Amino acid sequence: MTAADPAPRRGRGRPGYDQAAVLRTAVELFNRKGYDATSIGDLAKELGVTKPAIYHHVTSKEDLLRLALDDALDELTAVVGGAVEDAGSAGAYERLRGVVRRSVEVLVAHQPAVTLLLRVRGNTPVEVEALERRRWLDDRLAALVRAAVAEGALRNDIPAELVSRLLFGMVNSLAEWYRAEGTYDAAAVADALTQLAFDGLARR
Questions:
Q1: Full 3-state SS string of 57-115
Q2: What are the UniProt keywords, alphabetically (predicted)?
Q3: Residue 104 and residue 154 share a domain
Q4: What is the mean pLDDT of residues 178-200?
Q5: pTM
Q6: Per residue in 78-119, pLDDT tens?
């Protein structure tokens, strides 16, 4: 393609199958069959379109994976990064509680994509990048835990890195059992998880 050639268009296509619809179906298939076991042909069959129709929206199966993992990570990255950087708005303890609560809301809003994120093992460059972003989140949350300990708000006998992993572990467990149509809405679950976590971490 020369500089004069127009860039290929994506995101539009057959009515009813824009990029968002293709991505939703791809994530559902990746979760059901596994990423490695799912082909573009499988996705086309699920949607009832041809493979070229899929390539109108994305360049490859790995491109779909990248979009899905970005969907899982982008908002959470903004929540954690904002809490760490906005030190003047509130104490570290309150910001930490806010991160945990918002993390529940983000997971519920992006549950299929988060479920996929929790299953990646670093088998592709896209997965490696996603795992590096998860480690960044762990590190920033641990820094917030240390700041809350320094304030005297949290107990200091548990390593901050362990607390960070346990907090995210509690939130991530929702991907396995939470259902939007179930007994508890996202707000109720966020309240309960935050209370359970921080009542146990409070300094006495």
A1: CCCCHHHHHHHHHHHHHHHHHHHHHHHHHCCCCCCHHHHHHHHHHHHHHHHHHCHHHHH
A2: DNA-binding, Transcription, Transcription regulation
A3: yes
A4: 91
A5: 0.84
A6: 999 999 888 777 899 999 999 999 999 999 999 999 999 999
Of 129 and 200, which is predicted with more confidence? 129
25 is a domain residue:
yes
78 vs 127: CA distance, rounded Å: 20
Query: Looking at the 3D structure of the chain, how many domains does it have?
Result: 2
Regarding whether 89 and 44 lie in a shared domain, the answer is no
What residues make up the domain containing 23?
19-55
Q: What's the distance, CA 182 to chain centroid?
A: 21
Whole-number Cα distances in Å, 131 to 71, 90, 125, 177:
14, 29, 10, 23
In a domain, 7, yes or no: no
> Is it the case that residue 17 has pLDDT exceeding 90?
no
DSSP code string of 25-58: HHHHHHHHH-TTT--HHHHHHHHTS-HHHHHTT-
